[in-house]
Amino acid sequence: MEALNSPSPKPLLATLKGEKQPIPPIWLMRQAGRYLPEYRALREEKGGFLALAMDSDAAAEITLQPIHRFGMDGAILFSDILVVPMALGQDLWFETGEGPRLAPTVQARDVLEGLQATPEVLEPVFGTIRRVAAQLPPQTSFLGFAGSPWTVATYMIAGQGSREQAEARRLAYRDPALMQTLVDRIADCTIDYLLGQIAAGVEAVQLFDSWSGSLSPAQFEQWVIAPTARIVAALHQRAPHVPVIGFPKGAGGKLPAYARETGVDAIGVDETVDPDWAHASLPGDLPVQGNLDPLALIAGGTTLDTAIDRILAAFAERPHVFNLGHGILPDTPIAHVEQLLTRVRRGR
Ligand code: CP3
Description:
This protein has 16 helices and nine strands. It is of the alpha/beta class. The chain has one domain (22-268): TIM Barrel, CATH 3.20.20. α12 links the parallel β6 (244-248) and β7 (266-268). The protein is globular, with a radius of gyration of 19 Å. The structure holds coproporphyrinogen III (CP3). Substrate binds at residues 30-34, 80, 155, 210, 326.
């Protein structure tokens, strides 16, 4: 790791590769979304989230909205982690005001074996990436993503979001062999999907593991760390120049094991983690991403400034990507996002 006095041409990508920048680069999870009026307008026009995500021109425009409005250091592909279950043969739709639905639910081996894979449904996503790559400002880094096998499996098993991921955790105890087959199938599809994203033009990828927090330590090893390590190894072998960010939300005290054992190039930390603890507990050269509370961003004012300063101070001595601890919420005032960028970039 080398501390630079002047920023790299692509500060986010450089940070993910371990080069500390004079000012941490910043992007926000869910930065293209409902808090932006220009997003809501296009979503209205296209008739819903999934139609939007599968329309390459619209999805490219949405990916670029926060770049044009705020000049974020990273653009994240506009899509969803649940397109992988679609490619594996489940039907996906979004119930207005409720969230995703998947069918049939995978709770028995014959259902899993009966799914007909349709990898071609992912083609529009690659189209989005090619369009964004052609239009992105040179200093902006382009991130692809996928869900981690465990988190994706929780939706495939329950058919929707679930309280404490109870259905998936029950299945993992009741039929670990079926769970292993499902997780392996998701992992294989995810490797191909991420390699496809890289071929189309993304420069780094993030694995979202939103529900890793509900697992016991032994299950965390089996269903989070092991499949993540397999995906990271496959990507490193076939795309060695592309950094992988792991984001095991809720992992808490299991973060150091995740960092050590998965081989990720950078680690996302949620807002429940004390940034001083994270800095002290994670390898000193590992880039850390996070971890402002999305509710502090809504609060604004001096509450927001204090929270930002605390994070900047904690991670001042290591490669740091400023981000939220989880996705930006729909009722976030745009002025507070501007306040955040101004404060993080003081002196730039
Ligand atoms: O970060 C980004 O802006 C990239 C795009 C992105 C979306 N979803 C767009 C989206 C990413 C990276 C995701 C990840 C995702 N999707 C996760 C993991 C991260 C997390 O938030 O925990 C999960 C669990 C999903 C599944 C999903 N998609 C749910 C549960 C929902 C409904 C809840 C909600 O927030 O509305 C979605 C819909 C979704 N995905 C929206 C967006 C912008 C909202 C769509 C809309 O109503 O306009």
